[in-house]
Amino acid sequence: MRMEDIARLAGVSKSAVSLALSGKPGIGQETRDRILQIAKENEYLPKSRSEHVDAIQKSITFLVFANSGIVHNEYYQQPFFRELIHYIEERCRSLGYSLIFSTVALDKDDSEIAALVEEKRSQGIILLGTNLSRMRVASIAQRLLLPLVVLDNCYESLPFHFVGINNMMGAYQAGVHLCDLGHQHIGYIASDDRIHNFEERKRGFAFSLQERGIVLEEECIFSVAPTILTSQEALKHQFETYLSSGRKLPSAFFCECDYIAISALKTLSEMGFKVPEDVSVVGFDNITEARIVTPELTTIHVDKERLAIQAVDVLIQDIEQDNAVRTKIAVDTQLIERRSTHTIN
Questions:
Q1: Homologous superfamily of 167-301
Q2: DSSP string for 176-232
Q3: Where do the DSSP E strands lie in 54-202?
Q4: Helix (H) or strand (E) holding 33
Q5: Which CATH superfamily includes the segment(s) 3-165+305-331?
Q6: Which terminal residue of the chain has fewer beta carbons within 10 Å of its beta carbon, N or C?
Q7: pLDDT tens column, 8-46
Q8: The pairing of beta strand 299-301 with beta strand 334-336
């Protein structure tokens, strides 16, 4: 049986079969399961069995829990995660490891997940912690009997390796920037899907305003879906309700991520507001799209390459040296000033 035969039986392309067999993202779970079942039924083995075994002997599993929120089934198409995965693969390759992808439903039982990961026979796990609570991280980590690093989150009280963003610092930088531009009536656009990173950003932003004697009023906090790049009717409705009470829209907004910021830019434009002349907008993440929207987005830069390198290096050191000491790394951020903010008149 050849790869072409599996593709014909499954009704898919040869590249789809390759993605399924290698565990890489790029196809739906249903298609992946169908391909793997056909391969199993026909006792398919790659041509170079020895090379395949060697690859398995030095591999890392990238484990993702997907839901309908911030990390959905096609997370690898989202700009932030796409960049992060690219750098993780590069670093693994440079150190002689392959990267295996494993995506499971967020509501799946942790014991089933442990069995699933063990089947892949990798040496360690990078767990994407973006959408995971403290209790879920603890439960998963305790069941996985392999070296582990949790990426894009950090719970200081848990005895595991964490590599994440200094979220509080980034949001603090955004607040300082807006205050330095003379803004005092400042709004906040949050994600309606709450995760630890967003809570830290809210805390950092509020702290920056508090230092300068500015109150983040509850009425000036809005919320929207965090993964939509177009204008949102929900946000438009919130703005219209706020304005109908006779209040003036804040002169600036901090948004918890670039997706929200870009959505806000488009919503404000549809409502007749000019950015930055009428309203300044700051995002967080510095995704590629931040540079191609109009106006270009002022945002907080997250060094995805540094995150990836730190996560892979910490994990491989644990795999190869069995270090009992756990590490928690927070990668600092940087304000990138573009055209969506300006000094208030």
A1: Response regulator (3.40.50.2300)
A2: HHHHHTT--SEEEEEESS--HHHHHHHHHHHHHHHHTT----GGGEEEE-TT--S--
A3: 59-66, 98-105, 124-128, 148-151, 161-165, 186-191
A4: helix 29-41
A5: Response regulator (3.40.50.2300)
A6: C
A7: 778 887 777 877 777 767 677 778 878 888 887 777 765
A8: antiparallel
